[in-house]
Automatic annotation (TrEMBL):
It comes from Desulfitobacterium dehalogenans (strain ATCC 51507 / DSM 9161 / JW/IU-DC1). Keywords: Signal. This is Lipoprotein. Residues 255-274 are annotated as: Disordered. The keyword Signal applies. Residues 1-21 form the signal peptide. It comes from the Bacteria. Residues 260-272 have a biased composition (Acidic residues).
Amino acid sequence: MVKKSLLLLLSFLLLILSGCAEFSGASAGKIIPPSSPVSSLGGKWKVLQELDANGSEGGTQQWLGSDVQFAPGAISFGGHVWDNPSYKIKRVKAEDYLQTKYIPPAGIFGPKTEKVDVITVYAATNYLGEFMKLDDTGMIFFVQNKVLLLKKVADEADSTLGAANTNAQDLNQDSREGISGVLLGLRIPSDTGYTYQTLWIAADHHQLHPVLASDQLFFPRTSGFWELSVQDLSSAGKTGNLLTARNVTVKVPELKTGETETEAGAETEDQGTTDPAERVIHYIGNDFVAIEKRTSGVNQLQMLPVDKLSSSTEIKVSDLLGDKGFNAYLSAREQAVAALREKGMTSINQDEPGENFGLIRKNGHWSLVGRINYQNGGVFEETDFELKLIPPANLIFYDTLVLSWYKIKDRVPDALDAFTSPNKDIALVKTKNKLTIYPIGTEQLGETPLAELDLPEGATVIMAEWGTGSYVDSWEKSFLVYGAQALAKDSVRMR
């Protein structure tokens, strides 16, 4: 009996140990918890050159000769120091990975190189960049839409980096104060539906940067910057539109003869789910998009994952808010249904899986709402009900109004919406057709605005992603590389 017990225990231990080992047939991109990422990257690296799409020297070479240094608990690059970085490492097929970055592998790898480690680095959950290890002395750094070839020049970082790390928290706090920027997404009514735009608004100690704009939706994620596109399907003989999202550094497949853009981008589109519906974007976050799906007279709310925008599977309330959140949703819905029945509305669907919900802006905050669709005299109608729940952090990362809504309305009576920076230094106040940028004083808006922008009639804010400190410069450069242009001076009235 004892021998059998020992045999079972040994088998159990072997099963556990085998589960911890890396499977030799693992697919490219598998995330592996690194035992010591600093030991892999640690030391001092020098930028040898900037690579272009041909894999050769190109660009402005502004980073040529710069240092990238890694010490326990700190990273330095471009004159900035980040403390307490975190890492994710994945094993990828080198040739395939480089092609997604527009870099041909020829001339970079030897013929025997197949798989390499790509280490993604974060600071305070913010994406800094990716490092592809070539060997012990060489690697490629993907940062700010740049591709830098690095060579290791020392096994240890400079001692000053270690000393700086002792006060890194104070240094980082100082670097954040008074420097803020925001990527603002707009939905604009048009004759054929809606168009979308991204604005970049930044200020350094109340000195406004040039306001940048793009006619696409450009937003940050932990994997870098992404673009969300709204494609009209009428050119393909269909009705409605299609939403697709992609990392801006990933190569778009080239069109083949007779192939549409949608077909070429099949890897970002789930085939067979392009039903004839108009999709109107209400909110864009790091990982989720809230939309209104309009089809056959029925307007439903949907929450979709950014990675699978055209998937037929919708996010449910319980997926984001758990069972307690779903019960609160059902309770609020029952009250709204009872109110409709008192008005004589009886054609209401009782089977509710918790998929008909989304986000709206109300008094300077994002609010969760559910929707009920019903028929009234043969006509489809809908009513929304508010959920008395705070949106979770994985849905909305920052939604703080550092000034009370009443103080903002007292200063700007026709204000419809407002946004304030995490640094409490600037505020954006939206009225019917204007966006005014204010400095923030002592718990109130400054007397004199920094600038005022005209907005198209009916424009709605669907995204506000804030960056502070060193991220402002990084985000601004990335947005410019993406193709953003400064707004004309006559459309931004400086004060």
